[in-house]
C-alpha cells in the first residue's frame, strides 16, 4: 500500500502544458508534490508562474528531452534532492505523427524520433524512477491513446508507439509485481487548446457533430484523464489494479458509424 504518512511526489513527463499540465495541476490540487518535466522551457515558466505561492513550493520544473537518458537521470535525481522520494510516475510526454503523408515516404529519422520520444521516453523514465518507486511502493501510469486500438490513415509511427505502450505496461506490471503497480490510460479526443502556453493557446469550439459522435455527448477535457491518473496512482483506492489499460474516450470507440 502507498505510504500516506508523507506528502506523495509525482514525476510527470510532458507536464508543463496540454494534458500533462492538467495532470500536474490535478495532482497538486490533490495534495501531491510534482516534478513537471517538459522539453518546452517557456511552457514550464508559464506553468510555474501561474501557480499560487503555496503550490509553487510543492512543484518543480525541469526542462529536458524525455528521449535523453541523461536528462531523465538528472531530473529524477533533482526530484529526490528536492522532495526526497517519488511515489508516482506519469509517462505523458509524446509527439504527433510526422506530417509526411504515407509511411512509404516517411523519413527514417522522423519515424525514429516518434519511437524514441513516445515509447523510449516511457522506458527511460521508468528505468530511472523505479528504484525510488520500489521504496515508496508507488505506481506508474502510462498515457497511451485510443490509436493503440484503431487508426486513421498515415499514422503508423504514432499508432506503433501507443500500441507499444499498452504492451510495455503489462510487461512492466509483471516484472515489478508486488513492488510497483503499472497501468495505462488510453485517451480519446481530449481538448487541450486552452491548456497550452499563451503563444499557442486557443479557445475550444466544438460543433454539435463533434459532441454527438461521443456517446457521452461532449469532447473530453484534461480533468477526465487527470482524475483517473490520481485514482490509479493511489494504492489505497486502486491497489488491486495493475497491468491494465483504461480507455477514456466518451464511448467513441464503441460507437459504430455507417456512411451512406
UniProtKB/TrEMBL annotation:
Keywords: Oxidoreductase
Highest taxon, organism lineage: Bacteria
Tagged with keyword Oxidoreductase: yes
Official protein name in the record: Oxidoreductase
Entries under Pfam families matching the protein: adh_short_C2
Family: Belongs to the short-chain dehydrogenases/reductases (SDR) family.
Classification via NCBIfam families: PRK07231.1
